[in-house]
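From the methods appendix. Each design record in this collection lists the discretized structure first, followed by the designed amino acid sequence. Records were kept in a plain field format so they could be parsed without special tools. The example shown here is representative of the layout used throughout.

RECORD:
C-ALPHA CELLS (133 positions):
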C-alpha cells in the first residue's frame, strides 16, 4: 500500500516537511485568502506543499490542474473549507481584504502595521504592502 498523500504541511519543523512519495515540499506564503480576506498565520510557522500530491488529488476530484499553483490553491481551499470553522481559524489573524502575488502580500484595506504579525513584517522572503491612507 502506498504512503498517504501529504499535499500540505503547516508546522515549525521544516525538516518534517517532506512528502514520503515525492520528497521535499515547496515553501508557500504563510497566508490564506478566505472570504475575500487575507488571513496570516499568527505564529512564525512554515507552510509547504507537495505539488505532485496536489495535482494528483485535483485530477482525481476533477479540480483545477492547469498549473501547480492552481492545484495547490484548490487543495488549500479544501483544507480551509473543511477545517476553518472547526478550529483552524484560531491559528490565523484577519488582515482584511487583499491579494497575494509572487511573494508580496497586498492589503487593500487600511490596517495598523502592528496588526501584521512581526515575523511577516521582518521577513526577507515576504513583502507586505499596506494601503496608504
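DESIGN:
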Amino acid at each position: 500500500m502506498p504512503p498517504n498523500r501529504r499535499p500540505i504541511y503547516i508546522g515549525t519543523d521544516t525538516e518534517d516537511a517532506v512528502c514520503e512519495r515525492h520528497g521535499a515540499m515547496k515553501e508557500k506564503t504563510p497566508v490564506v485568502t478566505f472570504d475575500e480576506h487575507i488571513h496570516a498565520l499568527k505564529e512564525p510557522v512554515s507552510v509547504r506543499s507537495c505539488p505532485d500530491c496536489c495535482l494528483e488529488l485535483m485530477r482525481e476530484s476533477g479540480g483545477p490542474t492547469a498549473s501547480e499553483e492552481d492545484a495547490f490553491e484548490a487543495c488549500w481551499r479544501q483544507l480551509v473549507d473543511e477545517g476553518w470553522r472547526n478550529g483552524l481559524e484560531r491559528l490565523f489573524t484577519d488582515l482584511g481584504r487583499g491579494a497575494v502575488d509572487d511573494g508580496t502580500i497586498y492589503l487593500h484595506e487600511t490596517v495598523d502595521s502592528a496588526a501584521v504579525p512581526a515575523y511577516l513584517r521582518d521577513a526577507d522572503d515576504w513583502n507586505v504592502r499596506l494601503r496608504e491612507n
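APPENDIX NOTE: The helical segments are 51-61, 68-83, 118-122.
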